[in-house]
Amino acid sequence: MIDRFNTILVDWLMGFGLSQSNAAILREFFWVILIIFLAILSFYVTRYFIIKAVHIIVARTKTKWDNILAEKRVFVRLAYLAPAIVINFLSTYALSDFEFLNRIIQIITSIYMVIIFLNVVTAVLNALHEIYQTYEVARKKPIKGYVQVAKIVAYIISIVIIITVLLGDRNLGWLAGFGAFSAVLMLIFKDPILGFVGGIQLSANNMVRIGDWIEMPKYGADGTVIDISLTTVKVQNWNRTITTVPTYTLVTDYFKNWRGMEESGGRRIKRSINIDMNSIKFCTPEMLDRFKLIEYVSEYVDETEKVITKYNTDRKIDNDVLVNGRRQTNIGVFRAYLKGYLSNNSKVNNDMTFLVRQLQPSGEGLPIEVYVFSKDQEWAKYEDNQADIFDHIFAVLPEFELKVFQQPSGRDFSNLYKPN
């Protein structure tokens, strides 16, 4: 039909006295104008009518994935293909007599369509990633690294196609040298390749997720993972700074993940106080009577005293000598008090490891260690709970006639030399 139209058009122009060659040139000029007009028209029809109608339909559907595709401008980018398709199709037939011009137009439109397809693929990958983020599994299995790898592959394929279009279908010998060029590509894309491999291992072994609290002292990272990409992992530290760590270092280097603590239902409190060993002593009857009035140890003191009294009586122990037989000590009663106090503390998780123990005595006194778990895992609340516990411990020590060991200060030494 186009050939017939061309013949009619040339005959019509020759009727005005034009030569056949001039009529052919005017015919091609007419087709160029017509092709440009139809290309522009096709774009506006597609962009402002068809795509707009698609967006209206998308807005009325109940699914979210099509809304995300619209937000990422996938349909809008597809509209840019319409003029290229019109030009590519019409120029093949309408400009067949001008082979060189036709070839140039074909090359330009082919490259243009490759670029548009690349933009569409990129937009689709971004949309798929955002759709994936709406699922709970995205927090455990991030795919941002895989999406970035897919984009790199799309870019490489696009570049190969563009070079092939420029050189022609028969000039594919350059692909043979691509293998030799692969060493250079490996060097250029070293970090993405290492990051891709590291990302697979992180995901497969469930080592790191977005939202995990990790520590990497070597890189100054101590905070929450906010992003995992192909080449980097971003950690927002507790001081609100952001540390960027290479993805593959999470596989090859040491880091600490606090996720186990967060999933356990408690956060460990492991702190000790040093007791002045000079304040440790046997309990006198007066002390025991006073301890029996303390809520958390009254039952313990009473039951323990009955056991000790029976033991000493059965063995006819001379109670005038304190070292004979068995006796309660103020440090023992204090440890029993701590157990009772902590087990009745609503902020302590009693279902997890629960210890109040003595550590190895040293020149700085006898350490009494509290090893329990706070129910609150949030940093601020956890620190408040820990501080509240030890505020109480320091305040209650004098009730058991115990003293905290403390290195003498300059003021202590100056008091030694004050005149009487």
Backbone structural class: alpha+beta
Q: Order of strands in the sheet with the most strands?
A: 4-3-2-1-5
Q: Name the beta content range.
A: 5-15%
Q: Major beta sheet, specifics? A: 5 strands, antiparallel
What global shape is seen? Answer: rod-shaped
How many domains make up the coordinates?
3
Give a written overview of the molecule:
- With 420 residues, the chain is α+β, with helices and mostly antiparallel strands.
- The protein folds into 3 domains: 2-201, no CATH class; 205-263, SH3 type barrels (Roll), CATH 2.30.30; 267-410, Alpha-Beta Plaits.
- 58% of the residues lie in helices and 11% in strands.
- The chain contains 17 helices and 8 strands.
- It has helices spanning 2-14, 20-60, 65-71, 74-79, 81-94, 99-133, 137-140, 144-167, 178-188, 190-204, 249-252, 259-264, 285-291, 298-314, 330-343, 379-396, 410-416; strands spanning 213-216, 221-228, 232-237, 242-246, 256-257, 267-275, 355-358, 366-374.
- The chain has a 5-stranded antiparallel beta sheet with strand order 4-3-2-1-5. Strands 6-8-7 form a 3-stranded antiparallel beta sheet.
- Helix 5 runs antiparallel to helix 6 (99-133).
- The radius of gyration is 41 Å and the shape is rod-shaped.
- It starts with a helix and ends with a helix.
- The mean pLDDT is 80.
